[in-house]
Amino acid sequence: MSFQAYLDTVEKKTGLTPRELVAQATERGFGPDTKAGPILAWLAEDYGLGRGHGMAMVHVITKGDRIASKHVGSGTAHSDPNDHLWLDGVATKPEGY
Question: What Å distances lie between residue 35 and 9, 56, 62, CA to CA?
Answer without folding.
Answer: 23, 13, 8
